[in-house]
C-alpha cells in the first residue's frame, strides 16, 4: 500500500515586546531565575491582568502580512491544566474567537528543475501567555522552576494540515521564521525558545480523504531536528500500521541523540482544558483605524519587494526570490546598489561569494565583515575595468579577512588590470608568433584553438590583461 503523510504546524512565536503580555515585568532573556516573575504572572490574590497594546499590534502586523482576517472582536480564555511551571493553574489564551483568522503563505519547496510553489493555509493565530520553565538537574536529584518566562507574550500560529512531506514542513517553518523577523514581531532566536514548532503528523492510504490519527511532536527548535523528527515519525507510523497495529493519539518528544520520537503522554482534546472566557479581561476590540495605523508602519513585504526587484532591476525570478529570503539579505543588497553598484552584479556577489562565506562561518549577514558600501566599491572596480573577475575574487578574500578596502588591496597586491591596448597588442603578437600551430588550427575552423590562444595571452600577461580587449584584439588579428 502507498501511504501519504499529512502534516500541520502550530508555531509559538515569542513577540518582541519589552514587557509581558499582561503585566509590566521585563521579557529580557538570561536573567537570574525568578527575578522577572511578578505578582501578576504568579497570580497573587487580587491582582488583575492588563493587556499589552504592543502585543496586539504585533498580532495585527502578522495578520496583514499573511492576508488574514483580523477579528474586530476577540476573546481571551482560560486554558485549565496543572503543571508545576504554571502557577495560576491555567494559561490565558484565546480559543473560540482568536485575534487573527484565516490567511495563507506561499512557500517554495526544493531547488532547480524540481522546485515548486505551494500555498499553505493558516487557520488562525491567537495571543497567549507563555508558561514558566522546569529546570532539571540544577541540583542532584531535584528539579527547579524558573518563572521568568511566565507571562511572556506569544502568538500561536496554526496551519491547516496542508503539508505532505518533511521538506514542505521545513520550507513553511523557514518562511514563517523569516517573515516574523522581517516584520519585526519576533527575534527568531530558536536557541532561546523565541520560535518553537509543534508538528502534527499522521499518515493515510494514498487517495484517501479521511485523516489518520495524529501524533504531535512538541517543541522543535531546529529545522534540522524538524526534518529528522517528521521522517522518523512518518516511518514509525507506516511500519506500525503495516504490522497490524493502531496509532494512538499522543504528544511525543524528539530525541536528537537517537533520531527517534517517543510518546510523552496521551494527547489532550480541547474539552480537557475546560476553556471559558477569562472574567478579568474585557473582549479585545480592534477598529479599522487601529489596523490602518499598523499598516502605515509596516515594512515592504517580501512578495512586493520581490516583484519590485524584478521590475526595477531586471532580476530573474529566482534571484529576486533568493534576495528576499530574509530582511537582512534584502537590506544588504539594496544598500549595495544604493552605494553605486550595478544591481545584477550586486545580486551575483550577494548570492554567491557573500552567502558562501557566511554559510561556511555560520554567520548572519548582519555580521558580514564586508559592508554593503565596501562590496559596492569592489564591484565598481570590476565595472570600470580596473580588475578582472578573477582578481576580484582575490580582493574579496583579502577584504573578508580584514586586509583593507578594495583599492588598497588592489594596489598592494598589484592586481590592477592591464587595459592599455598597445601593451595588450604586443602580448597578442608574441603569443601568435609562438603558437603558429594553434593559429593554423583556428584558420582550419577549430574554434577551441581561439580559446587556447586567449588562455596563452592571459598567461603571458600574468592574468592582468583585460580579457575583453584580449578577445577583441586577437579576433581582429586572426581574421584580418
UniProtKB/TrEMBL annotation:
This is Aspartyl/glutamyl-tRNA(Asn/Gln) amidotransferase subunit B. GO terms for biological process: glutaminyl-tRNAGln biosynthesis via transamidation; translation. Transmembrane segments: none annotated. The keyword Transcription does not apply. Its EC number is 6.3.5.-. One of its GO terms (molecular function) is asparaginyl-tRNA synthase (glutamine-hydrolyzing) activity. PANTHER family: GLUTAMYL-TRNA GLN AMIDOTRANSFERASE SUBUNIT B MITOCHONDRIAL AND PROKARYOTIC PET112-RELATED, GLUTAMYL-TRNA(GLN) AMIDOTRANSFERASE SUBUNIT B, MITOCHONDRIAL.
Amino acid at each position: 500500500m502507498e501511504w501519504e503523510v499529512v502534516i500541520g504546524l502550530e508555531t509559538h512565536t515569542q513577540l518582541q515586546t519589552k514587557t509581558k503580555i499582561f503585566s509590566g515585568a521585563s521579557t529580557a532573556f538570561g536573567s537570574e531565575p525568578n527575578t522577572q516573575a511578578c505578582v501578576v504572572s504568579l497570580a497573587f490574590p487580587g491582582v488583575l491582568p492588563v493587556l499589552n497594546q504592543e502585543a496586539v499590534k504585533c498580532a495585527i502586523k502578522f495578520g496583514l502580512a499573511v492576508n488574514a482576517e483580523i477579528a474586530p472582536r476577540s476573546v481571551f480564555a482560560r486554558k485549565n491544566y496543572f503543571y508545576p511551571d504554571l502557577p495560576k493553574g491555567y494559561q490565558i489564551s484565546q480559543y473560540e474567537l482568536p485575534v487573527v483568522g484565516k490567511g495563507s503563505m506561499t512557500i517554495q519547496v526544493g531547488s532547480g528543475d524540481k522546485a515548486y510553489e505551494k500555498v499553505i493555509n493558516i487557520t488562525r493565530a491567537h495571543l497567549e501567555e507563555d508558561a514558566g520553565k522546569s529546570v532539571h538537574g540544577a541540583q542532584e536529584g531535584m528539579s527547579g522552576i524558573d518563572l521568568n518566562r511566565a507571562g511572556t507574550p506569544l502568538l500561536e500560529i496554526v496551519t491547516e494540515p496542508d503539508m505532505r512531506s518533511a521538506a514542505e514542513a521545513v520550507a513553511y517553518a523557514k518562511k514563517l521564521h523569516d517573515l516574523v523577523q522581517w516584520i519585526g514581531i519576533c527575534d527568531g532566536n530558536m536557541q532561546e525558545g523565541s520560535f518553537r514548532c509543534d508538528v502534527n503528523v499522521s499518515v493515510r492510504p494514498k487517495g484517501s480523504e479521511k485523516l489518520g490519527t495524529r501524533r504531535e511532536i512538541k517543541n522543535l527548535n531546529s529545522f534540522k531536528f524538524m526534518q529528522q523528527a517528521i521522517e522518523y515519525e512518518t516511518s514509525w507510523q507506516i511500519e506500525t500500521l503495516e504490522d497490524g497495529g493502531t496509532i494512538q493519539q499522543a504528544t511525543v518528544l524528539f530525541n536528537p541523540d537517537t533520531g527517534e520520537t517517543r510518546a510523552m503522554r496521551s494527547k489532550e482534546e480541547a474539552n480537557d482544558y475546560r476553556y471559558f472566557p477569562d472574567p478579568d479581561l474585557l473582549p479585545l476590540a480592534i477598529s479599522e483605524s487601529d489596523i490602518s495605523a499598523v499598516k502605515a508602519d509596516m515594512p515592504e513585504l517580501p512578495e512586493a519587494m520581490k516583484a519590485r526587484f524584478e521590475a526595477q532591476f531586471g532580476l530573474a525570478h529566482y534571484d529576486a526570490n533568493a534576495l528576499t529570503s530574509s530582511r537582512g539579505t534584502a537590506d544588504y543588497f539594496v544598500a549595495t546598489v544604493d552605494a553605486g553598484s550595478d544591481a545584477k552584479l550586486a545580486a551575483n556577489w550577494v548570492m554567491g561569494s557573500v552567502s558562501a562565506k557566511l554559510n561556511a562561518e555560520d554567520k548572519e549577514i548582519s555580521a558580514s565583515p564586508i559592508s554593503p558600501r565596501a562590496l559596492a566599491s569592489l564591484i565598481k572596480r570590476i565595472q570600470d575595468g580596473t580588475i578582472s573577475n578573477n582578481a576580484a575574487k582575490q580582493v574579496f578574500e583579502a577584504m573578508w579577512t580584514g586586509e583593507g578596502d578594495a583599492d588598497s588591496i588592489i594596489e598592494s597586491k598589484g592586481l590592477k588590470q592591464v587595459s592599455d591596448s598597445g601593451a595588450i597588442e604586443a602580448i597578442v603578437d608574441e603569443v601568435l608568433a609562438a603558437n603558429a600551430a594553434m593559429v593554423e588550427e583556428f584558420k582550419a575552423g577549430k574554434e577551441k584553438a581561439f580559446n587556447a590562444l586567449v588562455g596563452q595571452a592571459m598567461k603571458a600577461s600574468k592574468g592582468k590583461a583585460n580579457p575583453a580587449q584580449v578577445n577583441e584584439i586577437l579576433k581582429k588579428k586572426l581574421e584580418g
